[in-house]
């Protein structure tokens, strides 16, 4: 049965811990609930927003409309052969619960994405990634429903138009669909991805290079860098790592020879946003109740009962400073509503 709350406080629905309200909040625990809420929207049109775990959101003010929160659960094997297994997970499953399940059962592919906050339904939207892996590498199918008419859809990997922190769900289908479940194709045996230097170093120190050790290592690294949202409100990495032209990189590396970088192609180079911000002296600095985390410059935190505008002002000031220093434009990874 679809439950709709009136004048709902969203503090527990966003990892920044901002106390904002929504006119209405619909908890959808089944596909039938999603279709019901879509029918309600079509008979009584109003502004709406679909949210997952709230780990990639910054509410700038109260939301005058309907928040749709899919909470569909379930993790099941729907197919397997000698080399692969296909796992279907509900949009409302905690992302790291899915990763833990896969690692426990020796299914390879998602282990480098351990301990990323949020829900399964948001993973294809954002094309989440970490430590040399993006979720697009394992997504086979995305299932959901069109908001316009309540029709179901099934999209394959190509249909999703994945790119760096991007998918069709952030482009032409933004605010037009709701993801209900995702099917992942995982391997039963594979070589671990240790391409990210610090991960490889820590795994080698432990002496055993297996799925569980890699997962534990990544969790340890993330915990050492990223504050727990329950203790200090944050949305993880606030900025995307900028990708710049090779010609621009060649100019910068002459001035900043220590600049870390990752070659994307003959023409493109990725620069770590955290390094840019750290090098510019932003660690620990604050504006109002918002601050840059002391251990990870890529993370903005709700340090002292921050207002949304404090976080936005801090973000804008950092963006301006990086542009002036490096002629590089940072983009927020967080969605500002």
UniProtKB/TrEMBL annotation:
Co-factor requirement: FAD
A Pfam family annotated for this UniProt entry: MurB_C
Chief location bin: cytoplasm
Known role: Cell wall formation.
EC number: 1.3.1.98
Cell wall biogenesis/degradation as UniProt keyword: yes
Protein name per the record: UDP-N-acetylenolpyruvoylglucosamine reductase
Record-linked HAMAP family: MurB
Pathway: Cell wall biogenesis; peptidoglycan biosynthesis
PROSITE patterns on file: FAD_PCMH (PS51387)
Keywords for this protein: Cell cycle, Cell division, Cell shape, Cell wall biogenesis/degradation, Cytoplasm, FAD, Flavoprotein, NADP, Oxidoreductase, Peptidoglycan synthesis
Ranges where the FAD-binding PCMH-type domain occurs: 18-189
InterPro entries named among the record's database cross-references: FAD-bd_PCMH, FAD-bd_PCMH-like_sf, FAD-bd_PCMH_sub1, FAD-bd_PCMH_sub2, MurB, MurB_C, MurB_C_sf, Oxid_FAD_bind_N
Class of the enzyme per the UniProt entry, highest EC level: oxidoreductase
Catalysed reactions, as listed in the record: UDP-N-acetyl-alpha-D-muramate + NADP(+) = UDP-N-acetyl-3-O-(1-carboxyvinyl)-alpha-D-glucosamine + NADPH + H(+)
GO molecular function, one term: UDP-N-acetylmuramate dehydrogenase activity
Active-site positions on this chain: 165, 237, 333
Family membership noted in the UniProt record: Belongs to the MurB family.
NCBIfam families recorded: murB, PRK00046.1, PRK13903.1
Location in or out of the cell: Cytoplasm
